[in-house]
Amino acid sequence: MPEGLKLLFSRDQIEEAVRRLGAEISSDYRGRCPLLIGVLKGAFMFLADLLRHLSIPVEVDFVRLSSYGCRTETSGVVRMTKELESDIRGRDVIVVEDIVDTGLSLKFLLEELRAQGPSSLRVCALVDKRARREVEVRVDYVGFEIEEGFIVGYGIDYAERYRELPEIYVLEEGT
Ligand code: IMP
Ligand code: MG
Q1: 3.40.50.2020, 1.10.3470.10, 3.40.50.1010, 3.30.300.30: which CATH number matches 12-148?
Q2: Residues, CB within 5 angstroms of ligand 2 (ion)
């Protein structure tokens, strides 16, 4: 196990959660072709696996959000550093996020997207830290709910490290 990390979710647990989310989304959107918007960079691995568990056609696009700095806390100032390339007016849109923590990033993104007139807008997050929410945002599909702790792996980083790990770990204090 990588030093300073404690295993939280194994490959099997992740696979099971992603499979469940894929089945729920496929059932809810049967007969439609939603646009999945992955939030870079953290959601790239989750989105890639989620797609393989869908039984409906979808389209994929990406945005990139960043809050300043590479600390373990969101600064609250969110920017979009890569814009959407698709026209989402009248589309069914599903935002695919790695983690919803304070909710500030997602709230900002949902406001931007809503202004572009999608016919529906939902959110799928691998990890929901609901207890830490500072602003109200609705997450429709949740892989795991956790109370606290800074996590890495499976696309999720700390200062750009650990994205390649196939499992999800908690970063231990002092690392
Ligand atoms: P929020 O704006 O506070 O909801 O945080 C949103 C983003 O901060 C998430 O999409 C992640 O990219 C990042 N983030 C929040 N918690 C963690 C964590 O435990 N590990 C790594 N990144 C995190
Ligand atoms: Mg993110």
Answers
A1: 3.40.50.2020
A2: 39, 42, 98
